[in-house]
Amino acid sequence: MQTILGANGAIGTELAKSLTSYTKDIRLVSRNPKRVNEKDVLHPADLTRRDDVFEAVKGSEVVYLTVGFNYDIKVWKAVWPPLMKNVLDACEEYGSKLVFFDNIYAIGKEHIHHITEDCPISPCSKKGEVRAEVDRLVLAAMDKGKVPSIIARSGDFFSTMRGTSMLMIMVYDNLIRGKKAQWFCNAKAKHSMTYCPDAAKGTAMLGNTPTAFNQIWNLPTDKNALTGEEWVKLFATIMGTSDKCQVLPGWGIKALGIFMPIMKELHEMSYQFASDYFFDSAKFEKFFNYVPTSNEDAVRETVAALKNIKG
Question: What parts of the sequence cross the membrane (predicted)?
Fold first, then answer.
């Protein structure tokens, strides 16, 4: 049995699809799980409860942690560290392997210009401090040989689930409504974006490769990092819209937080848009001989899929 904790989100849904290449025994765990594949086993659970975590993990060969909590620092502080401790304890109890789908928040601004697996944990934000605490728990479990684990990191990602991607919210959603696209801080800075299907496929590949465990991996991402302006132009060209873009300065993001809570939460992460942000997945690409989907193809597929959903 391979189990996804936090199923049905942008990553969990795509991961469930990808896992069918390796197993028919897939357990989807969330408060209200929905079947992705015909034979998926649905397991409702409240993952903030230790007993629920243990029940969800029991009988699993591999556990994928892809939970996405509300984008609120108070929530993150309250739920992330206990969840990771419970998941690691459950995996140790039942002899399960762990694949943790992570972001790069634990990596500070002095390293985002070239993000590799060797970048030190150096958070420069409150959310980054929470992710660093969680990463250290996983790394400690690796070092002590308690739980075979993988930290699978993704850059900012995008998919047809628009509400979980800032690229889709700022660019696609505005363009489809006939408005100017928006970008944060510096539209001339490069910013890597990971395509969800690639991230999910990569996560499944890692979880089913024994020699990949007890390492950090950057998930496959097109090495051709685009600037904010180039992302807007790419979407606009494919969608057939204007490529005009409004750049929101750091102080503007903070000011919008008065009316839009998510903007208040995003303000501390504005450093990721102020300068180049390059996510390097060369280690994964070389090990698996994998070529990530190009940015152009990824955007084209996403826009086409959204048209089909609406149609």
Answer: none
